[in-house]
């Protein structure tokens, strides 16, 4: 069983992915962390984010043990991740790791931008999560403040919109809902209600399958 969750920045994909994985006893991979790790390695090395050769080299040597680094969650690294993730060869270098993760037992939930379209086009359930940009900016600002960072909501909104624009318009694996994805708008849902709505989708797909 593979559950693919995609959606724009701060739509709640990660939270939902984690909760769904917990509910079903599956493993969870936040694929954004992978691109963030590539971006952080380039920033640390003082390299250009558009340096294809170095970005690919970094992508091929990633250490999943470091995916928990809290610096990866920052706005700055997220912005840099959206620049390096537009390089096709960087994306290619990361495909096998993601597919291997998805295929392992007992099941997996992956969240990102291209899980339902490119990484796992045959996923059992695909959910495309969306939320109003202002709601997303509010959530991210609260999160940054809780971490003790100084975040200006208007600035966070501008960053989110710029990142969505870049992710939607890149040539390779752009952010978009797969044709067979279920749309979940959580603008007016708290986390619990969003998780419940997603479980309902998964259960409906399973029930439909049993009837066949
Ligand atoms: O958490 P948030 O939605 O802000 O970002 P993220 O999911 O951690 O992703 C950071 C950046 O990585 C995105 O803006 C995308 O450019 C890129 N990304 C991607 O291209 N493909 C994925 N499957 C996941 C992330
Ligand atoms: O992974 P992604 O960037 O799409 O979003 P996230 O990190 O899961 O969620 C962004 C923020 O929104 C987190 O602080 C969540 O707790 C919050 N959130 C919320 O307040 N209500 C929801 N229905 C979903 C997420």
Automatic annotation (TrEMBL):
Belongs to the cytidylate kinase family. Type 1 subfamily. Transmembrane segments: none annotated. Its EC number is 2.7.4.25. GO terms for molecular function: ATP binding; CMP kinase activity; dCMP kinase activity. The lineage of its organism: Bacteria, Pseudomonadati, Pseudomonadota, Alphaproteobacteria, Hyphomicrobiales. GO terms for cellular component: cytoplasm. Residues 3-202 form the Cytidylate kinase domain. It is found in: Cytoplasm. ATP binds at residues 7-15. This is Cytidylate kinase.
């Amino acid at each position: 069983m593979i559950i693919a969750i995609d959606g724009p920045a701060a739509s709640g994909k990660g939270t939902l992915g984690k909760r769904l994985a917990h509910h079903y006893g599956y493993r969870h991979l936040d694929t954004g962390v992978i691109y963030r790790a590539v971006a952080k390695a380039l920033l640390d090395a003082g390299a250009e984010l558009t340096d294809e050769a170095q970005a690919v080299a970094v992508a091929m040597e990633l250490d999943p043990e470091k995916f928990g680094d809290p610096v990866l969650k920052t706005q700055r690294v997220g912005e840099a991740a959206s620049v390096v993730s537009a390089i096709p060869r960087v994306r290619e270098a990361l495909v096998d790791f993601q597919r291997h993760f998805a295929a392992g037992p007992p099941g997996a939930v992956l969240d990102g931008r291209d899980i339902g379209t490119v990484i796992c086009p045959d996923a059992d359930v695909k959910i495309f999560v969306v939320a109003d940009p202002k709601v997303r900016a509010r959530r991210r600002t609260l999160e940054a403040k809780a971490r003790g960072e100084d975040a200006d909501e208007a600035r966070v909104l501008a960053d989110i919109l710029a990142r969505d624009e870049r992710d939607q318009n890149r040539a390779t694996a752009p952010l978009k809902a797969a044709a067979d994805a279920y749309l979940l708008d959580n603008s007016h849902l708290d986390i619990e209600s969003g998780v419940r709505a997603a479980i309902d989708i998964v259960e409906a797909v399973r029930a439909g399958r049993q009837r066949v």
